[in-house]
Write a structure and sequence with these properties.
Layout lengths: L3 E5 L4 H12 L3 E8 L7 H11 L4 E6 L37 H16 L3 E3 L15 H14 L1 H5 L5 E3 L7 H10 L24 H13 L14
Parallel strand pairs: 1-2, 1-4, 2-3, 4-5
Length: 233
């Protein structure tokens, strides 16, 4: 019988690839997404499509409202930064960082995993081609895994050792895309834009769009992203 795993699925290309990797390793996958007050909530349509295409055992969209706190361009009344090229992106943690988001998401995943009796959680964080978020680094993932094993009944009783898998953490965006293509991921149903229009078309100039486009260019794979009219994509 296949082992169960909880996979965080945002609707973007990274989480779609992480889900495909979990499936390729023989896990029976349970997909977890969040409606957290994000301005790009259309990503949940993509998450639903990705989960269905992967034939997951169950897909849960949890509702939490991080707009109550704000503090991010994704959850508050702050403009999403736009640039002409990846080289224009600064080195500071950007305003699109959502405070404690991955900690919150992983906590929900740990709770569901404990209910399922699952020992494995997959998250598509990346520490190379990314926007500099502190909760995407290897040391964070390692620290969270250690904490989770101290904070759960299964961990304390020694019946389960929880593992947080971050299979993309040391990959470039191009390498992630190539791996996804190898595993049959349809990137055309994914979305990465932080500021899409009402139809879901990508802005082409936010950090996420620029990193995604750079990844497809470097992977020498056609970019299936639908961009907004008038962009120079």
């Amino acid at each position: 019988m296949a082992k169960a795993a909880v996979v965080l699925v945002s609707g973007g290309l990274d989480s779609a690839t992480a889900l495909a990797i979990a499936k390729s390793q023989g896990f029976d996958c349970y997909a977890l997404s969040f409606r957290y007050g994000q301005r790009h909530a259309i990503e949940l349509d993509s998450a639903t499509k990705v989960a269905a295409a992967s034939n997951v055992r169950q897909h849960v969209i949890a509702d939490i409202d991080l707009r109550q706190f704000g503090g991010s361009a994704l959850t508050g009344d702050v403009d999403v930064p736009k640039h002409e090229a990846v080289s224009d992106v600064g080195t500071d943690i950007p305003v699109t960082y959502v405070p404690a988001r991955n900690t919150i998401f992983l906590s929900f995943a740990v709770a569901w995993a404990e209910v399922l009796g699952a020992a494995d959680i997959f998250i598509g964080v990346n520490a190379l081609d990314y926007s500099g978020y502190p909760d995407c680094r290897p040391e964070y993932i390692a620290a969270y895994e250690a904490m989770a094993n101290l904070a759960t009944r299964a961990g304390v009783e020694g019946t389960t050792h929880l593992r947080i898998h971050a299979p993309l953490i040391a990959l470039t965006k191009a390498e992630t895309i190539r791996r996804g293509v190898e595993l049959g991921v349809d990137f055309g149903i994914t979305t990465s834009c932080y500021d899409p229009d009402a139809s879901g078309a990508a802005c082409a100039h936010c950090d996420s769009c620029l990193l995604r486009r750079k990844g497809f260019e470097e992977a020498l794979i056609a970019d299936p992203t639908r961009y907004q009219p008038g962009t120079d994509s």
